[in-house]
Amino acid sequence: MPTLFSYGHGYSAQALTPLLLAQGFTIIGTTRSADKAERLAASGITPRVIGQDDLSGDIQQATHILMSAAPGENGDPCLTDYRDMVAASEATWVGYLSTTGVYGDHGGAWVDEDTALTPATRRGQMRVSAEAEWRALDLPLHIFRLAGIYGPGRGPFSKVRAGTARRIIKPGQVFSRIHVEDIAQVLAASIAQPNPGAIYNLCDDDPAPPQDVLAYAAELLNLPLPPEEDFETAEMTPMARSFYAESKKVRNDRIKDELGVSLLYPDYRKGLQALLALETG
User: Fold this and answer.
1) Residue burial 76-93, b: 16+ Cβ < 10 Å; e: rest
2) For residue 209, what pLDDT band results from cuts at 50, 70 and 90?
3) Can you list the positions of beta strands (E) in the chain?
4) d(CA 163, CA 174)
5) How far, rounded to the nearest angstrom, does the alpha carbon of residue 63 sit from its chain's CA centroid?
């Protein structure tokens, strides 16, 4: 029976869950919260609490491994604690969820999987190091570089409704994004067609300024446009401001050409329309 060991079974991995359960997979998902472990169990996942449960047997029996947790200052958390076990794994597919932040700032120009890695933020630098940690192991590794993730529970509508949304204007700024259901279908396609060593960008077809996304959300809700604020003078947390340190458009041709993926939500307009329909029933 195929078994997925999912370290850091969060938002993206949970979207993959129903696709694999339908194929007869057993899924073992880790969390750091006992409460979340109960929720995982309710969705058909075998939960493991990091720091409480012994994961060695789970890693050993896994036919597939998915790493979703972000790296820290000490490196990749899974490899920090379980490097030898992971290195000895006989899994036929290993997936690492990274970020398009590894490419850094390109002034709004296009990047693809062969673009040099020049991250502009500490988070991006840690991702580059974590990718290298995984590549150093003799495993059938697949790296997935994710753009900004949105989906159910992670859309702009609540802030627009509450009147707290702001259209931060930084000339030339563009972001790529990806609906979580498209992440799930790309991962499932890769599991079905392993290509060890492959790197895939996961993003939609329409990189866009963030203010355009908020404006369209307001249009869908028939609400006034959120106010504009200049990036240079806007009050923002250091984390929020750091996202504007990089501007680029990310190409996604490889997931289409190699994996045959047809995006469910090829642009933010279709994605937001679907999210609103889901919210309103």
Assistant:
1) bbbbeebeebbeebebeb
2) very high
3) 3-7, 26-31, 46-49, 64-67, 93-99, 110-111, 141-146, 148-150, 167-169, 177-179, 199-202, 228-230, 249-250
4) 23
5) 22
Residue 220, class by beta-carbon neighbours within 10 Å (0-12 exposed, 13-18 middle, 19+ buried)?
middle
Give dist(CA 142, CA 127) in Å, integer: 14
> Looking at residue 280, what is its pLDDT?
85
Burial of 226: CB neighbours in 10 Å, binned 0-12, 13-18, 19+: buried
pLDDT, one tens digit per residue, over 164-175 is 999 999 999 999
Neighbours of 35 (CB within 10 A): 8
Token pair for 129: 């190091």
Report CA-CA distances (Å) from 273 to 44, 56, 146, 166, 219: 29, 43, 21, 20, 11
> If 0-12 CB within 10 Å is exposed, 13-18 middle and 19+ buried, where does residue 258 land?
middle
What is the spatial distance between Cα 268 and Cα 228, in angstroms, rounded to a whole number? 20
Give the domains, in start order, of the chain with CATH numbers.
3-151+177-205+250-265 (3.40.50.720)
Strands 249-250 and 110-111: parallel
Distance from the first to the final alpha carbon of the chain: 37
